[in-house]
Amino acid sequence: MSLIPKKISWKVFLLWLGALVFGVAVVYGAGYWVGLIATRDLSIVGQERLSLYQGTLRSALEKHRYLPFVLSRDEGIKKLLSENDGRGGVAIAVNRSLRATNQKAESDVLYVLNSKGTTLAASNWLEDRSFVGHNYAFRPYYKDAIEGRESGFFAVGATTGVPGYFMSHAVHDKTGVRGVIVAKVDMRPLQRQWHDGGEHVFVTDENGVVFLSSRDDWRYRTISPVDDVALANIRGNRQFGGAELLPLNLRLHKVFNGDVFEVGGQKYLALKRNTGKPGWVMHFLTPLNLVEEKQRTAWIIGAVLLTLVFMGSLFLRERREKLRSAQRARQADRFQIINKKLQLEIDERKRTETQLLKTQEDLVQTGKLAALGQMSTAIAHEINQPMAAIRTFAASARLLLAKGKKESVKESLVEISSLTERMSNITGELKSFAQKAPVEYHEVDLREALNNAINLMETVWKPGEIKLHYQDLGASVFVKGDLVRLEQVFVNLLRNAADAMEGQREKKISVYLRHIDQLAIVIVEDNGTGIDPKNKDQIFDPFFTTKEVGKGVGLGLSISYGIIQDFGGSIRVENTEKAGARFIVEFEAVVPSSALAL
């Protein structure tokens, strides 16, 4: 039986045709709306990911920004530039100093250029690809620094072929600019981190050249043609070595008012943001597969529903003119089919929601692993410093042994033994974080531990940055504990106090050592914003922190609390009367065995 009526007027035909056109428009509009919403949601998630990658880039660049400025004030470097000779004793001393500083700061290379751009000293002076003797006057970072401008420049190393970010600062004396100090940061670890994330992120310069990328095959390609002037400038300063700077095979177009990159037949929603560096733009590409799939699903469902409605309407009209009872039976069958299809759609939606919940749980687990990764990085940083010192002492011991200076060799071995003991203490702290371990108690001079911690932090702080008021008893106070672990406690308290005053115009830390009856008391105060009362009960909990993301994992106070508890002491925190926080540490004072022997 045909569903199309045998007799139909033009008026009814036009009405049906109009309804069909309207239905097609509604289905198309529904699919467009679904795609628009999905694209907006994808863009929101992409912006969050872009912020995260922007933070990793900023952290990698700003971590070493202070080095050229600080080294430009080094008297040894100024003396070397005044002599303008890279072969004398001053040059050797500066080379060693730069090497030690480079190892501690974990930068790639530190080197000194004279006023003509020739390298007089470098941290890699003993390596095959040493910078010493090479001239880098063609580099923009040298030209900017010589003209008095603080400079930053990304380029492929002209000597090593290793890409990195170069930061420079002029070295001044009474006669003017004597030379330039340059710090190079290796950007390859950051790109490996992006690559391991499995996403598409890259950074372009003012000429549209991709110089940082999570994909190796996109690096040193362009997203837009480079004009001849800019290309000549790039070749002149040898910014990208011998790279051909070929354009990427991509198509740019708009989808739902968003930029879309089509590379290799794959479409990506392109999000970009300025990085804060002149001309640098960070791009984040997220696949449009999910958006297209949702849009196709919406159109298919709409088309099916429109077809069902249209065919059902014809069917109802035909049956209404003939047999109403038979029409009701057939209509019931069709509704049953529709219900089954809708049930299939409901089941598919439930499976999608289950997958989204699992993805959310995976993201939470990833966040936890990132926090543990930050803790491991801090432990590795602490171990690298004594390891570098051991290598230096071992090399010195070999030279002294060759010269027959056995007493000096003995001193170097004593230093190596002390450093290995310190490394053992550091790794012991990691073990104690995982499980409870026995602690060897000794009679420790609390005053000595506090003085060591203060001296350490004063070398870390910038000169004049923090005003430290230390009220000392002038006499030793002994407690049962361990010197290194006590130093760790006081370093954590001083570091937290300094962090709490971030943004303050005048920063002041007060430290008091008290001996009252049988108690040894240490008080650390700051003039920061104080402790929020709602966070007071959680301040010593593991992984609890009020700092911004990437500036702390919330373990310092928790570890300090555990150390103090192990030594039988106590720690508490309170807000001061005016502003800031006050940490109070109490131990049971003991009389040293040497005094009892008397």
UniProtKB/TrEMBL annotation:
Keywords: ATP-binding, Cell inner membrane, Cell membrane, Kinase, Membrane, Nucleotide-binding, Phosphoprotein, Transferase, Transmembrane, Transmembrane helix, Two-component regulatory system
Localization annotation: Cell inner membrane
GO CC entries: plasma membrane
Top EC class of this enzyme: transferase
GO molecular-function term, one example from the UniProt record: ATP binding
InterPro entries in the cross-refs: dCache_1 (IPR033479), HATPase_C_sf (IPR036890), HATPase_dom (IPR003594), His_kinase_dom (IPR005467), HisK_dim/P_dom (IPR003661), HisK_dim/P_sf (IPR036097), Sensor-like_sf (IPR029151), Sig_transdc_His_kin-like_C (IPR004358)
Mode of membrane association: Multi-pass membrane protein
EC numbers, comma separated: 2.7.13.3
Catalytic activity: ATP + protein L-histidine = ADP + protein N-phospho-L-histidine
Transmembrane domains' residue ranges: 297-316
Any Pfam family the entry gives: HATPase_c
Domain Histidine kinase: 378-591
Primary location class: membrane
Function: Member of the two-component regulatory system DctB/DctD involved in the transport of C4-dicarboxylates. DctB functions as a membrane-associated protein kinase that phosphorylates DctD in response to environmental signals.
Protein name (record): C4-dicarboxylate transport sensor protein DctB
Organism: Kiloniella spongiae
